[in-house]
Specification:
Length: about 240
């Protein structure tokens, strides 16, 4: 039995993992998802959110030993949490996620990508504290392969995304925590180009799994994703660097 903590990406919340949590539970594992600060039902003002606050929220929710699963932008806070408290985090799984690089923020990494699918989808809100996703753009990028009922459920739940954490690089020395790491590459992703995911995952060596999925496999194939996560949690300590 493994213990999973599932971490959402930009503009999402714990709600997006509900079917994966159920599927992992049916497989005999313990699983939960949380709202990061200023997301979902969390009341933290967006102006107070930092990358450090995200990591602290994850560590407060994690019970050793936890498998941290970070989707998309959550690649940064799960990495920082694992580096800050290695004894609590058993391993890291990056789901079509940004992998931290020295001195680079998520915004830096996104701009360095070979294509910019989000260029006309996300826009800074007045005041520049958050950005929001255009619903039609989100349908085209986040949810292009999702069933219509899932899209109808997801779009109204998208929330403004605090900009400050995504403009912050990880502290030097925390980009590569000591735990085993694995990357799940989504081959039909319209948000983070698959070829860019492959580039970011190159340091993982053979610890890469490919899914024939868009950016939201937790909505398109939650049972399959749960089986993949469960299999990776059962891997030995040789999983990745």
């Amino acid at each position: 039995m493994a213990r999973f903590l599932l971490v959402h990406g930009s503009c999402h919340g714990a709600w997006c993992w509900s079917r994966v949590v159920d599927a992992l539970t049916r497989l005999g594992h313990e699983a939960r998802a949380i709202d990061l600060p200023a997301h979902g039902d969390d009341p933290t003002p967006a102006s107070e959110v930092t990358l450090d606050l995200y990591a602290s929220a994850l560590l407060a929710a994690a019970e050793a030993p936890t498998v941290l699963v970070g989707h998309s932008a959550a690649g940064f806070p799960v990495t920082l949490a694992a580096a800050l408290d290695p004894g609590r985090i058993a391993r890291l799984i990056y789901l079509c996620a940004y992998v931290p690089k020295t001195g680079k923020s998520i915004i830096d990494l996104r701009r360095a990508g070979p294509r910019q699918p989000l260029k006309d989808v996300v826009r800074a809100d007045p005041g520049g504290v958050t950005y929001s996703a255009d619903p039609q753009g989100a349908r085209r990028t986040f949810f292009h392969d999702c069933p219509e009922d899932e899209i109808a459920r997801a779009l109204p739940r998208l929330c403004p995304e605090p900009i400050a954490p995504q403009a912050t690089a990880l502290p030097p020395g925390t980009e590569t925590p000591p735990q085993p790491r694995h990357y799940i590459l989504c081959q039909d992703d319209h948000t983070i180009p698959p070829e860019y995911q492959a580039e970011m995952a190159r340091p993982f060596g053979a610890a890469i799994t490919r899914l024939p999925s868009g950016h939201s496999p937790f909505l398109t194939a939650p049972a399959r994703l749960a089986r993949v996560l469960a299999a990776l949690a059962d891997e030995g300590p040789s999983l990745g660097p």
